């Protein structure tokens, strides 16, 4: 089969590799759509814990091609996606159902071969039916499941006044979910015009540009600050400023992935004096089923988040498009 293999950091090669062999409890899936995300960029750059050679790709959908003999819930021809994170099942965190903190977490497209290929093999217990969702939408279930998990970790008060930094694909999923979760208002700050326009279309109550006046603008929108402040940029300087915009007793959600070794300065006294709470959320944990329900019931629109589609052979162009910032979600179509 055709696959995009990262032979090493920054060394992608399209090549012919054997179709993955499946075990008795696995599915072989013909990949129809596979999203590129920030994690893939980190893997590409060699800044992640992945080892090479590796076929990346952890946000995907496709059609079941073949099933192992113990597989019960799937048949060839079924339209599916899969949760890429595979816990060891044995460690303390797996035992208490917190598999995203598994001490030996495996992830499709990160520690084992992923979806930037014609076929991928996954264990049956990680696969989900997608019904009549489009393959493009279904390849966004994984990032939506991460957003669902993040909000499950964060107690959002009904009627909250919410501020989000960053209107990329994740920021706009957070925005839609927070509205549904009971926020009375969601304000979003974004530097790029195309992303601000999309934030407006998808229902942000206020969209604020980054032009040097944003601090005054945000103060005028809420004198006493916001109940919930979310970072979806992964930029440490932005995260460092979040306390300024939080109301006393407010919640800060550090959602965007900052570079691993960066640090920020915050005042512990301020956290104490102002009753602030800081939350983090890593990846997802058993949240594929609710993410699929949110899409099937049209609570969240992910269709508008897809801006570009490329063939497998165009991976480097796809990556460049993604890094240019003039895109939203970029997907590959191996088929
Ligand atoms: Zn991802
Ligand atoms: Zn484990």
From TrEMBL:
GO MF term list: oxidoreductase activity; zinc ion binding
CDD domains in alphabetical order: threonine_DH_like (cd08234)
Nucleus among keywords: no
Transit peptide in keyword set: no
Highest taxon listed in the record's lineage: Bacteria
Cofactor(s) the record lists: Zn(2+)
Pfam families associated with the record: ADH_N (PF08240), ADH_zinc_N (PF00107)
InterPro entries: ADH-like_C (IPR013149), ADH-like_N (IPR013154), ADH_Zn_CS (IPR002328), ER (IPR020843), GroES-like_sf (IPR011032), NAD(P)-bd_dom_sf (IPR036291), Zn_alcohol_dh (IPR050129)
Segments forming domain Enoyl reductase (ER): 9-332
Signal sequence, start to end: none
PANTHER family to which the protein is assigned, alphabetical: L-THREONINE 3-DEHYDROGENASE (PTHR43401:SF2)
Family statement drawn from the similarity comment of this UniProt entry: Belongs to the zinc-containing alcohol dehydrogenase family.
Record-given protein name: Alcohol dehydrogenase GroES domain protein
